[in-house]
Amino acid sequence: MNNFQPIQAQQIQIPESVKTGFENVGNTFNNVKSSVTESINQFSNSATAGVGASSSFLSSNTIIAKIAFLILVLIVFMFLVNLGIILIGYFITPADDPYIIKGMIDGTNSKVISQDPKSKDTVPIKRSNNQSSGIEFTWCFWLYLNDLGNENGKYQHIFNKGDNNFDKTTSISTINNSPGVYLGPQNNSLRIIMDTVNATDTNNIIDIENIPIRKWVHVAIRIKNTILDVYINGVVSKRLVLINVPKQNFNDIYLCQNGGFSGKLSNLRYYSRALNVFEINGVVLYGPNLNISETSSLQSKDYNYLSRQWYSQML
User: Does residue 5 fall inside a structural domain?
Assistant: First the structure.
């Protein structure tokens, strides 16, 4: 028999102050929760508004980018067009400094270099570039003389730019010499004629004496305004001040006409400007081109080159 009596549970009484404290904590927690929720909602609303603003900003930037791209395309297109024009001009426009004869030909091998643009073998000669100092151009060539020439008292034709109407007594072109270069009769002199705008002008002739025989000699005919200079192997041989303005023509270039001369001609070249003394001496130092011209019947052979010191000592 169990002698222990059951203990009855006594109700625990919670003070009123504790209840009030718990209620205050609960209210505070609810207030914090409401505040956080409200802040999150406000941030979400702001973010939504920001997305709209960013979309507008990006849209406006896209328009600017399209315009900039179009401008860039136009710039590239214009650049390519200009480049194409330059390349076409490079391949079509005549050279400023063309070779009339590149290589070596025999002095008796007559030729006519056409100035007709329609001709297949044309070598167009551009007019002087007419700098601020006036008309200017240069003709250069290498000359090799075998002997003093004929005995009939006539000049021997080397080349002239003009026509082939020659005087029966002198064998010099009677109408156009722009320039004209001739070997003197029975002597080793060169006669150089430069036409002027005055058809009756007689102050247009230079004679160069003592041209060496059986040696290569470089000749440069240089015009600048009304000053005509002749260089022999890079050294000024003679100067002529023309009374009238030099005259250029559109006629053909004639080489070695009327039997030509006894010798060789190499690298006849035209420059549309007046070469300076350094450029002329650069050509001289390079020496004559002894390769046979494509249109020549010459056979390859050794030819002596005359040092420019030899000729300068003779001046």
Answer: no
Which tens digits make up the pLDDT trace of 207-254? Answer: 999 999 999 999 999 999 999 999 999 999 999 999 999 998 999 999
pTM of the entire structure? 0.67
Residue 131 tokens read as 């700098």
- Residue that is written with structure tokens 């060496």 in the block: 212
**Domain boundary residue, one of 34, 69, 93:** 93
Give residue 20's domain range. 16-93
CATH number, domain of 168, equals: 2.60.120.200
Q: Which of the listed residues 34, 61, 93 is the one where a domain comes to its end?
A: 93
Q: Indicate whether 181 and 290 sit together in one domain.
A: yes
Q: Are residues 37 and 184 in the same domain?
A: no
Give pLDDT tens digits for 168-209: 889 999 889 999 999 998 888 999 999 999 988 889 999 999
